Amino acid sequence: MPRKRRNDRNHLVYKLTCSVTGEFYIGVTFIELRSPPKSLRRRWLAHCRNAFKYDKQTRLAKSMREHGEDSFSREVLTVIRGKANCHAAERQLILELKPPLNMEGMGYKKGRKAIS
């Protein structure tokens, strides 16, 4: 019988910051092989593909195309056990910090300020 896949593995909350504008993005990914730096790098490469290869129209992708991928720094904010716990922490950080590159679909429209 195949082994049941774990649903409580470690995840990390990360922050991408543009050195040109100071705008930032908060995201989450799972940790591969107990290596947060490799996991964050893998997720960063996915963001790069979305921006440059697939021409996604998110605020993060547009900022990456405008300022270049070298203008972004990556940092692990926290490691949390369990997918649900990590996503809850990510949502809480987004509500508190209001990262400009995350705000689509959260009361913000593309190119506009918050809707009251």
In short:
36% of the residues lie in helices and 22% in strands.
Task: For the record, give the distance between the C-alpha atoms at the N and C termini, rounded to a whole number.
Answer: 54 Å
Proportion of strand residues: 15-25%
Structural class, by secondary structure, is: alpha+beta
Radius of gyration: 15 Å
The low-confidence parts are 112-116
Q: What's the helical proportion of residues?
A: 25-40%
What's the arrangement of strands in the largest beta sheet? Answer: 2-1-3
Count of separate DSSP helical elements: 3
| N to C succession of SSEs | EEHHEH
Describe this structure in words.
- α1 crosses α2.
- Helix content is 36%, strand content 22%.
- A three-stranded antiparallel sheet has the order 2-1-3.
- The protein is globular and about 50 Å long.
- The C terminus is likely disordered.
- It is an alpha+beta fold and 116 residues long.
- The longest helix has 18 residues.
- A hairpin with a 5-residue loop joins β1 and β2.
List the helices and strands and how they pair.
Elements: E1 10-18, E2 24-30, H1 36-53, H2 59-67, E3 72-81, H3 83-97
Antiparallel strand pairs: 1-2, 1-3
Helix pairs in contact: 1-2
